[in-house]
Amino acid sequence: MSKPILLFLHGFTGSRADWKPMHKLFPAFETVAIDLPGHGDNRTPAPYTMAQAAAEIIAQMEKVRLGSRPFHLLGYSMGGRLALYTALHYPHSILSLTLESASPGLQDETARQQRRQHDNALADRIERDGLPAFVDFWEKLSLWDSQQQLADETRAALRQRRLQNDPAQLADSLRCIGTGAQPSLWPHLGELTMPVHLIIGAFDHKFIAIAQEMRRAMEEAQLDIVEGAGHTVHLERPLHFAKLINEAQHTN
Q1: Cα 217 from Cα 220, distance rounded (Å)
Q2: What is the mean pLDDT of residues 55-71?
Q3: What angle separates helix 131-139 from helix 152-163, to the nearest 10 degrees?
Q4: Which fold has domain 5-251?
Q5: Listed residue (101, 102, 91) closest to 192, CA to CA
Q6: Which residue ranges make up each domain of the chain?
Q7: pTM, whole model, 2 decimals?
Q8: Inter-residue contact 97 to 84 (CB < 8 Å)
Q9: DSSP summary character for residue 203
């Protein structure tokens, strides 16, 4: 009997290579990682939408699965937003949904408009200043403070992967599927029919509040807050991260 498939979706500035160290931690699964639009080798021409990005994920997985076998879906940050959108629109394809440091978007249209302006300004910055300068700026955000605990070689490898992205493509991803461009999924959380697992780092206070609100909208969802980790739980606490997911799948 073939193993169940577990698909990884990376975050902004990442690529499928971010998950390479994680594959061995899920021996019960056939693990797959893909590049999202504007990242890695994915050169989806802009403009595109969340709907088109989700359809592309399903199309890629149909090739991987050689058919329509459902799969487990795990998304981190930007990949988590896209994973949630995909699960809502293609529920029969998704066996379970794991969201790491992710949100359903912004509920208020004014907030979305302000975020679109912010995302567009970041996109302009990438194109104006170049990718190395943007990565320098990006890595100094307080969101990544807890990554200082990582080994120097781990942080250097993460930076190198970020620098391998194409700046114009990365800018397009902000404009097309950034948080400001995403429709609010908050009203639809109760429509999810598959098991949902929320994983957040204990240092990531903003996303803890988001996850707790999501949990209230999904009574059956599992919420785990991981001590000693920030936004990138899978990178900062990989063994604990994998243990949580493996145990959750065993009980589902």
Answers
A1: 9
A2: 86
A3: 140
A4: Rossmann fold (3.40.50)
A5: 91
A6: 5-251
A7: 0.97
A8: yes
A9: T
